[in-house]
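How a chain folds remains the central question behind the approach discussed here. No coordinates are needed to read the tokens, only the vocabulary itself. For completeness, the protein is quoted in full, as a sequence line and a line of structure tokens:
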Amino acid sequence: MVAITNTTSLTFLKEAIDTTLTEAENQLEAFSDDRSRQDELQHCAQAFQQLRGICQVVELPAAALMSEEMALAARELQDKVSDARIQALSNAIVLLTRYFDYVQLKNRTLPALLIGGINELRRSGGKGLIQESHFFSADLSRQRSPEAPQREMSVSELSDLSRRLRHMYQVGLLGVLRGQGNATNLKLMARALVRLDRAAGQCGLSRFLWVAQAVLTAMYCDQMAITPARKALLSQYDRQLKKLVYDGDQAVTEEAPLLLIKESLYLASLGSGTGTAAAEVRGVFGLERGVSDTVLQSELALMAGARGSVIRSVAGALKDEINQVKETLDLASQGVADTDYAGVAGGLRRIASTLEMVSKEHEANLLRERADKVADWPSDVDADSPDFHALVDDLLAAENTVASLERSLAPSDDVRRDATNTRISLYQLDDARMTVVGECRAGLALAKRSLASYMENNWDPMHLTNLPGTFASVSGGLMFLELERACAVIRACRTHIETRLIGGDEPPGQPAMETLADALTGVDYYLESMEEQKPIGEGVLDVSEQAMAELGYPLAERGTHG
């Protein structure tokens, strides 16, 4: 069996984690209100220490480190009270809560999301900050390829050239530090490093110059965010160039610090371009393509936005308001009673105001424009008129915006798909898909009962007669839902049952049946998590695939992906 780790294990522990963080938040608030309540801090420290252990078990190293820093901060507050320390700890609780939600819902860990929070805690305690690359690993023994050419100038000549090129680099760096024309300045800095690299040839700083120019290229090609940490890194580059100007033979032989190389490789790994210097560096160092910096910054912004509970509350209020307007328009379309369109306009404006709370300004403005037009309508407007249909379309668009908000809080591996037709209700589509999920689960339940009867009745294949058809229906539903990995498992199960259980010469035996049950249970559990909006992650499908591999169907090796 495959161990279910990370997001899958987190699902089982999430409720307990949320409770622990909520209690810790209340305890910290109680201490903040009454500084004599030292026992509250003690409870906080114990809770964070326990949380660290949980994070280690579910393989969330960033969350484990943050929990450790939080426990340390709580203990230190008992000896020395600091408002900045209390605020940093309070912010950390909120951030860690959001991070656990993120990991569960998006099914990926992205340790970089917690770097800022960890550093805020460390800064409040007067400690050194961890690097952006803290959770990044690379083989730092690898050298540049191909090697730099032989240097053709003397050390003194290189020193003179380095002084001029360093000045070029500093001009660009000053512009970046001031936030002026980042792309132009980054290009200038990269040009300085490229020329230095050619001139320096094979020397101690050769690998650094090669990697650093790749970083600068990635920064301007991908328009990477210029954060304070990255400004500090670019300033460290300048200190390496200073060696070429003033340190003579020593600069030629000494390599740049490995931590500087590691941090640079991390930034190069965030580049998305191909055929660039960053791509060459990634290839030589065997760096895996993870998220791009664009995605990383987007996710950081998401972490800084409204908490999931807030968004859910707002979405619920929006749905209620939209439904009220829809009911009014339904009655108007049936000609049941005169319609108060001034009231409809008021509802539209309330929806618009709420949409603004979740940064949906464009959609809010469209609704306000529609409200201004609707407010003066007579009570007997023709429901078949273009204006009435336009109102209905705008309301549907607002409803789909709310559905999209809720989707942002839904598991990334669920069955929801974007709709290109804006006249289709996403809620209705989701209901239809959930119906299919339910039918697939019903088919799996039937299959499990048939297999149990097969075993209980002395391996009588008559109990399996209907299974091929059942599995065909389930796999068809999974294909409709675009769940390819789960579908491949069910198809393999069908083949196994047809060839070895129904058509086989000997009973399969208890171990083989338990393995088959593992495969089916994994798919069923995966579908159940979708129904209940409690994502378990695709790790459970790993279990199903390995079970089928044990039965002779190595699905993962055939490149089946969900």
Summary: The domain at 426-558 is CATH 1.20.120 (Four Helix Bundle (Hemerythrin (Met), subunit A)). The chain has a mean pLDDT of 84. The chain is about 70% helix and 0% strand.
